[in-house]
Write a structure and sequence with these properties.
Order of helices and strands: EHEHEHEHEHEHEHHEHHHHHHH
Strand order of the largest sheet: 3-2-1-4-5-6-7-8
Helix content: 40-55%
Largest sheet: 8 strands, mixed
Distance between the termini: 51 Å
Number of strands: 8
Strand content: 5-15%
């Protein structure tokens, strides 16, 4: 199948590589020429502008946008709308606010175009493990794009699905990330309790390894916890400063709007705020976990001392 890809950052480049392994014809564009050149070396067709990318695709076109949510996504979608034609499709694979996705879908529909929002999870591991994708949009368009999703997913019939109309994909991904906040916080707090029991001199990496097999708390996040603890259980070179990328806040706001009690998700978000005010081992582990599963940057302790 043929696809345009705009945005070759860390995750976009990995997705491009996985698509090329699936023998798709891929036309790529990024504001930086280096990742475009790298993708071209791997078999993609390079382009030097959005109009050039569109010209190299066959109608009806599909263009996957993989840029940070917010103003950047807004700008790219608006620019694409000016160069695409009726029946073409814009796919937003970033973590946009679902309300923005609903608005963009309506705006494109007025111009005879389609919009598909794909909540994408998998981070830097997606290239080898596959991406979990929550897809929103018109069913007929999603069906037409199915070969793309089957290639990116862990398996053709696993890890992805059409969850509802435009906006539903990013809504489901938003709640997914809210749950992720709670799970990570639970692991971080539990391991801090273990660490502070000095009398037992516990090996936290060993405990994580034990729990990975057979226990009811085993998970991929626990696997990543074990990896983070393997080299340095004190996480001595990681500052306990944990960012939040927006979805956690949106999930809590949605819970409030719907009168749904969500104390665990809310407190896990607030604990990230706490991490920016004082040293905390659990916050260090949260930062390490984000680095493990998503390649997110961690701040080093040395930066705090400067």
């Amino acid at each position: 199948m043929e696809l345009g890809m705009i945005g070759l950052g860390k995750m976009g480049s990995k997705m491009t590589e996985r698509l090329l392994r699936g023998d798709h014809r891929l036309v790529v564009y990024d504001h930086s020429p280096e990742p475009v050149q790298a993708a071209a070396a791997a078999g993609a067709i390079p382009s030097d502008s959005m109009p050039d990318l569109v010209a190299k695709l066959t109608a009806p076109r599909a263009v996957w946008v993989m840029v940070p949510a917010g103003d950047l996504t807004e700008g790219v979608v608006n620019a694409l709308a000016d160069v695409l034609a009726p029946e073409d499709t814009v796919i937003d694979g970033g973590n946009s606010n679902y309300k923005d996705s609903m608005r963009r879908a309506a705006a494109l529909e007025e111009r005879g175009m389609h919009f598909v929002d794909v909540g994408t999870s998998g981070g830097v591991w997606g290239l080898t493990e596959g991406y979990s994708m929550m897809v929103g949009g018109d069913k007929d368009i999603v069906d037409r794009l199915q070969p793309i999703f089957e290639t990116l997913a862990p398996a053709p019939d696993k890890g992805w699905g059409h969850v509802g109309p435009s906006g539903a994909g990013h809504f489901v991904k938003m709640v997914h990330n809210g749950i992720e906040y709670g799970l990570m916080q639970a692991y971080a707090e539990g391991f801090e309790i273990l660490k502070t029991k000095d009398a037992f001199e516990l090996d936290l990496h060993q405990i994580a390894q034990i729990w990975r097999y057979g226990s009811v708390v085993r998970s991929w996040l626990l696997d990543l916890t074990a990896a983070a603890l393997k080299e340095d259980q004190d996480l001595s070179d990681i500052k306990g400063w944990v960012a939040d990328s927006g979805e956690g806040r949106w999930t809590v706001a949605e819970a409030i709007d719907q009168d749904v009690p969500a104390p665990v998700l809310t407190l896990s978000l607030l604990m990230r705020f706490v991490s920016r005010q004082e040293k905390s081992y659990s916050a260090k582990l949260l930062a390490a976990l984000r680095n493990q599963f998503g390649g997110h940057e961690v701040l080093k302790e040395s930066a705090q001392d400067e």
